[in-house]
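Much of our argument rests on the idea that a fold can be written as discrete symbols. The record that follows shows the chain in one-letter code together with its fold in token form.
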Amino acid sequence: MALKVIESHSPQETFAIGEQIGKEARPGQVYTLIGDLGVGKTVFTQGVASGLGITEPVNSPTFTIVQIYDEGRMPFYHFDVYRIGDVEEMEEIGYEDCFYGEGICLIEWANLIEEILPEHYIQITIEKDLEKGFDYRKITVEDR
């Protein structure tokens, strides 16, 4: 289980970290994104999209569950499962086509659907530490 800890001191740095991950992403990878409200998940995700070559606006799909972006170098499936009441809802939207497709998945609040995550995924956890500053974030990247 490889572990990498990255420190960010601004939204721009958080975006750049996400962008680097997007540039290095390979088809079929699944990323889970864990973090409290307001921790920078959307900024990070916008960076990932930029790294994939996506130029359209990227926002959290809180009410639609999944947003699909096709304009980059591979499809980008952005999930926000915060409002999922039951894992069966994921089956209704065809999650398997995304998880095991030709693009990459990024799943916010993935801890709510752990039982359907693939055997291997990359967990990204973003945490604040106000003692280190308002914009400080600790970003942990972990192969699982």
In short: The mean pLDDT is 93. The domain at 3-143 is CATH 3.40.50.300 (Rossmann fold). The chain is about 25% helix and 25% strand.
